[in-house]
Design goal:
There is one protein chain. Helices cover 19% and strands 26% of the residues. With 392 residues, the protein is α+β, with helices and mostly antiparallel strands. Strands 14, 16, 17, 18, 20 and 21 form a six-stranded mixed sheet that branches. Helix 1 packs antiparallel against helix 5 (314-339).
Length: 392
């Protein structure tokens, strides 16, 4: 029985030393996912224009996906956590009412205008011929492209508070929340209220914006008082459309510059404000980027090479071979000792050593080395005191 257990352990150690691994088999689920990737589709816009729409998947969120033939109120939609990471919301019906339904935006993305009507226009029975009637009308924005955005949009009622006392509005940002933690390798969505970025001399909403990320230095006593120093803007996006008010950002490890954590400010610059006039601190939001934990993933190419028996991990085998050789040496030594257990007798050596340790040397005064040394009484020693008869 002991031999069976031993050979089992030996086989286990040898398999580790040789780097044995089961062959990777592509599963059907992975193939199914690739076959269901969204494909380009065509649509007609503005009554006559035909365009081809190519869906894009970012952080698991599909943008520009082809809409369902029949709208489904229970179709899932994408909300955002306070740090800007996406989360899927599935509507449900309870007691005849829809819970967690798709977001509505009231008049936040509508434009108000005033229409004037004369008596001749309306001929209302309660109007005099010289009366003028004025009516406020809200006009919906062009949803040709906003309808392709599956993520909840930023509106003033979704603003968060920032500052030391949490009494400052985060306008125009809804995400990220101040002091959020962004981890390297992950993608987050920056969202802002598009109608906040209007030109000063008109109510025209800026068509283009840029996203900036800047390092921040601040003293502990200055936190919450906007007395901060911005040493550098390390990331600036291209000019992008302002219509959606959303921008994905993937955190790059190079932005940390060797640190584990850095504090930054996120800001959005409208097209009508020049670089010299733009101040990232004016409406920016503070957040952190940090290294976090990294999980190594085997790519499809690496799986294919491993299935073919090709590995690029020589260091792995060297690291495993050293302790394995030590174990094998100990096993061989064990067998050697067991085979020669009947031939071992160290009693003569042990007895000889013990006899030397307990050997009586005799009187010291008779030894040649100490014959000429004169012994003295205790009272003749320098440390002896006659009065106290004590040794200091």
């Amino acid at each position: 029985m002991k031999s069976v257990v031993f050979w089992s352990y030996l086989a286990l150690f040898c398999s580790v030393a040789l780097g044995y691994k089961d062959v990777h088999r592509p599963n059907e689920k992975k193939k199914k996912t690739t076959s269901e990737d969204p494909k380009p589709w065509k649509r007609t816009i503005y009554s006559t224009e035909i365009e081809i729409v190519t869906p894009t998947v970012i952080a698991g969120v599909t943008f520009s996906r082809k809409p369902l033939p029949t709208p489904d109120p229970l179709e899932p939609w994408v909300s955002l956590n306070k740090d800007g990471s996406p989360k899927t919301i599935k509507p449900e019906i309870k007691n005849g009412r829809t819970k967690k339904g798709h977001p509505t935006y009231t008049t936040y993305f509508q434009t108000m205008s005033t229409k004037t009507y004369s008596y001749e226009d309306l001929k209302a029975k309660n109007m005099d011929p010289h009366d003028i009637f004025e009516e406020e009308v809200y006009i919906d924005e062009d949803d040709t492209y906003t309808s392709l955005n599956p993520i909840i949009r930023c509106t003033p009622d979704r603003y968060l508070n920032k500052g030391l006392a949490k009494d400052i509005s985060s306008e125009p940002f809804c995400t990220p929340k101040e002091n959020s933690m962004w981890k390297v390798g992950k993608t987050y969505f920056i969202t802002w209220y598009t109608h906040f970025l209007t030109e000063e001399n008109s109510d025209k909403v800026s068509e283009k914006v840029r996203i900036h990320l800047s390092y921040v230095k601040e003293k502990l006593s200055e936190k919450g008082y906007h007395k901060r120093d911005i040493p550098a803007t390390f990331y600036s996006s291209e000019w992008i459309s302002n219509v959606d008010g959303v921008f994905p950002i993937e955190i790059d490890e190079a932005w940390l510059q060797g640190y584990y954590e850095r504090k930054i400010i996120v800001s959005v610059q409208p097209l009508h404000i020049s670089d010299d006039e733009f101040n990232p601190l004016e409406n920016g939001v503070m957040t952190y980027i940090m290294l976090g934990s990294k999980v190594a993933k085997t790519t499809e190419e690496e799986w294919a090479l491993q299935d073919a028996g090709i590995y690029d991990q020589e260091w792995y085998y060297v690291a495993l071979a050293i302790p394995t050789m030590v174990v094998i040496a100990l096993v061989l030594m064990y067998f050697f000792l067991q085979l020669n257990s009947g031939n071992r007798d160290f009693s003569e050596i042990t007895n000889e050593t013990l006899s030397k340790r307990h050997k009586v040397l005799g009187t010291i005064s008779k030894m040649k080395r100490f014959k000429n040394i004169k012994n003295h009484k205790y009272s003749e020693l320098p440390t002896y005191n006659k009065k106290s008869s004590k040794q200091y």
